[in-house]
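[agent] plan:
  1. take the single chain provided in the ticket
  2. run structure prediction with default settings
  3. attach structure tokens to the ticket
  4. add a short note for the reviewer (M.T.)
[agent] executing step 1
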Amino acid sequence: MKKLFLAAFVAVVSLTANAQLWVGGELGYNYQRTTNHKVEVGKANNFSILPEIGYKLNDKIDVAVEIGFLHGEEGAKMMGRTVGDDQYANAFILNPYLRYTFAKAGNFSFFADGGFTYGNIHICGDDNSINAWQIAIKPGISYALSPKVSLVAHVGGIAYSYSKYDELKTNGFDLGVSGNNITFGAYVNF
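[agent] step 2 finished; step 3 output follows
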């Protein structure tokens, strides 16, 4: 029995010694202010904290998980849902995904992330929460500053989302690139 545990320990240590583990994530912030004849009629602060951890299986494929927190005020879009007037919402998300790197040019890598995201959105002042999920493919680009540090950007993508709030069900389909769906992040490779 001791030999079995020793063999398992040696196998785990040898796998992690050569591990291509990386950590990183994205931070986001958006502020918007609405005026009517120079009188402020609304303002909103929206932010996201999305840490990630991943493992490089080979030169082309990574597996990763993103666990994060989103805060959105009126007009913010959260997993296909738009926060209503005079409301704010907080969301917890869990997003396991697979990254496929399809091209490299110097320090640049071009990839697509495909994953399934679950979100639990709570609108403040309401006892019920919204359960939402999304299946998405997001193209991205990575630039290696060094062998250990990379900058990453995602640009748009294609997504199907579903959410349920009491008896209200929302299905959404998103396709395209706009200034509202560009994100930036950084990764550290171990």
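[agent] step 4 note for reviewer: The chain has one helix and twelve strands.
[agent] ticket updated
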